[in-house]
Amino acid sequence: MQNTKLTFREKTEAFVTKPYFIVTLISVSFLLFFTGQPGTPLFYITIFITLWAKRWDWKYFGMTRPNWSITIFRAFLFAIGIFILNDFLIQPLIELYFDKIDLSEVGGIEGNLSNYVLYLLLGWIIGGFCEEIIYRGYVVKRLAIIFGDTNKTWLFSAIIASIGFGFAHYYQGPSGIIAACIIGFMFGLIFIYNRNNLMVLILTHGIYNMIAITLLYLGKSRMIIDWVHELIK
Hints:
Number of helices: 9
Number of domains: 1
Number of strands: 0
Shape: globular
Structural class: mainly alpha
Largest sheet: none
């Protein structure tokens, strides 16, 4: 038999797609989040290397060509639904026991058009695209497949990813971590039912961020939350 020597690219692919490598990477990154350190750069580097090694095969992360009209329509519905749940129920309940979410990291948006546009771009690129590639396309999908690729493992992986997603928002304080965990889990549930259409998650997350940032710009970000607090006093 003729021996076929693996190229460097093929060796890299074989390494970065091994289950022990994936589980170790996720564990180390999440441990950094839990201790208040940035773990996201490890994901960025690994995902870029993985994409290169797999010759830019986005299907590995659940990204396939979607039906755009249906995907966009669903994304708007999901984003609005999550926003309503968060502002009418989740955040008001969290703030009954914890402080308000610390949004000082995104200060200076209200009434400032240039900052508003900047944060809109960041909300789509970092929040919508990058975070969904990391937490749903990589963490949820890879862990679910490693653990057996069943509905239960997908649900378990969505829970794990939501915890990491929550602690990645440690700069928002305890309320921000809890809210992000819950919202991240909702994103995970959407992905479970759209396993080969990560684009619906990217659009949902981006639209949700766009709504939140627009309300910050208008000075109305707490309008619904404060109204709910008045009702339950």
